[in-house]
Amino acid sequence: MISQQTSELLTQINSYCETNKTEANFPVRNPATGEEITVVPECTADITRAFIKRAKAAQPDWAALTAQQRANILKKWHALILQNQDALGELLTLEQGKPIAEAKGEIGFGASFIEWFAEEGKRAYGDIVPPNMPDKRLLVIKQPIGVVGAITPWNFPNAMITRKVAPALAAGCSIILKPSEDTPLSAIALRILASEAGIPEDIFQIVTSSHGAEIGEVLTSHEDIRKISFTGSTQVGKLLMRQSADTLKKLSLELGGNAPFIVFNDADIDGAVSAAMISKFRNSGQTCVCANRILVQSGVYETFVEKFKSAIAKLQIGNGLSTETSLGPVINQKAFEKVSRLIKDAEDKGAEVTRLHTSLPEGNFIAPTMISNVTNEMDISSEEIFGPVAPIFSFETEEEAITIANSTQYGLASYFWTKDLARAWRVSEKLETGMVGLNQGLISSEAAPFGGIKESGMGREGSKYGLDDYLEIKYISMGGIA
């Protein structure tokens, strides 16, 4: 049962869809029940090109506003999101499945990027460079890159949008957003509130489509799109990069991960277990930075496994709209089949599979699963799981742990637990990831640079560094000063 405020928000979404209707539409379903929530417009390549044309025409006027004027509008958007946090959270749970407390938390987290970049947009400082000749003055300024194409995933359908849209708007860009076909309603809701805040419709446009490849090809090949920001799989990120090559677009790619979670013998075991639970099972394990491989030193292996098993047993599985639920469904049948395949492969190759929940609701629910005695021959040791499954490895030495942790093409996030200060420095520096969590399982913040290395992508989101991805540097040489 949803609240009156959420029902009213759905009515606004349906009105938006009717106003922007196309020849076809596609359904949005609740992953916990399979029930249809509503239908949204099926935008085509031609519609997307028309959006781009409007975005290019509108962008100069938006860029001409002062940073303070744009900040004032973004702050109104931020306030409206927080005023509607409960409804936006329920809507997110309806289309994505995560527990309602997590969903409402995501709304607040997503809003934090809007507030951050509203302020950070006022700090796009340039430089005065010492001249090479007496009669010259050398200036460096930063200007908005232009029209941005953004493609966002279903696992964080609110925060992944604001993390891209907020810096783009703060910098003076216009943006075309293609949300996941599984979770377009959160995007539409954000667009509705953006309009109320005073963000022009042509400056922030939504392309809803179940044909992602078609829309992606338009965004990457169109000469008027000057930047692509994408969060998703490494495979798709490489494709978008290739498609963007002919027009030399600026790219921000936040791609796959295979995060190690290392527990050393001197760790606070209770703290490590609590952090592993958050990192692994938040959003049913469907986060790009979640603990994909748990590495435990042999001296504390048995203790950690028993405590971890007890913590897993306390999880409550069900529909995310229930306040008692701590673990919802995976997003769809395809995800269910992938995670089930990884579990079976590990079991067939000799791993010990522990399922502590035998009674599950119907639908795309997977029991939180612990897998021990994992070897490198098992698919689960190298693939990104994206489900509530925790493979646990044992190691002997610090050097072995680092070798295992780095033995992947991915380099997004890593975590480790230790009380040894010298080890804290050594391991942090040796882990080949863009982000490291030391004695913690949650690392995302609007004030910190989010992003990876290796095949986990390029560019950074959030923080002061996140604004630079939407700006071009221009050098001005002034002569005849003497």
TrEMBL record:
GO MF terms, alphabetically ordered: succinate-semialdehyde dehydrogenase (NAD+) activity
Chain ranges of the Aldehyde dehydrogenase domain: 23-476
Keywords, alphabetical: Oxidoreductase
InterPro entries tied to this protein: Ald_DH/histidinol_DH, Ald_DH_C, Ald_DH_CS_CYS, Ald_DH_CS_GLU, Ald_DH_N, Aldehyde_DH_dom, Aldehyde_DH_Superfamily, Succ_semiAld_DH
Residues annotated as catalytic: E254
Family statement: Belongs to the aldehyde dehydrogenase family.
Protein name: Succinic semialdehyde dehydrogenase
Protein's GO biological process: gamma-aminobutyric acid catabolic process
Keyword Oxidoreductase among UniProt keywords: yes
Mitochondrion among keywords: no
Pfam families: Aldedh
PANTHER family hit by this protein: SUCCINATE-SEMIALDEHYDE DEHYDROGENASE, MITOCHONDRIAL
